[in-house]
Write a structure and sequence with these properties.
5-stranded mixed β-sheet; 3 helices; Nucleoside Triphosphate Pyrophosphohydrolase
């Protein structure tokens, strides 16, 4: 099983950063939460911090871990570890994505998401709803 990580990056306005995969790559044009594969001996948290620096040029503070998602896009199963996080330093730049966008909760479901990210989005939305009075 391939171990991968993703970051649900929140800003101060209850928005998430959505990233669009470039055309020509696997799942090209789909939206995803940024991240990538764990390296040998790396923890999911350390992998996410490294990946977000590489992909977006930001340092993040990790928050809550979400439930892992197991998915198979037809190339073998992957386990997706995800964390809610916030930017500690830097401004996100789309180094490996064709587009990045801050989205309010109401905008997120209109995007064409990579299927493995949909359960993460649903869990985040449930958490947001639970915090509302």
């Amino acid at each position: 099983m391939i171990e991968v990580v993703a970051g649900l990056i929140e800003d101060g306005e209850a928005r998430l950063l959505a990233c669009r995969r470039p055309p020509g790559k696997a799942l090209g044009g789909k939206w995803e939460f940024p991240g990538g594969k764990l390296e040998s001996g790396e923890s999911p948290g350390a992998a996410l911090i490294r990946e977000l620096d590489e992909e977006l040029g930001i340092d993040v503070e990790l928050g809550a871990a979400l439930h892992p998602v197991i998915w198979d896009y037809g190339r073998g199963p992957l386990r997706l570890h995800a964390f809610v996080c916030r930017i500690a330093d830097g401004s996100p730049q789309p180094r490996e994505h064709s587009e990045i966008r801050w989205c309010a909760a109401s905008e997120l479901m209109a995007l064409d998401w990579a299927e493995a990210d949909v359960p993460l989005l649903a869990e985040w939305l449930d958490r947001i709803d639970a915090k509302r009075p």
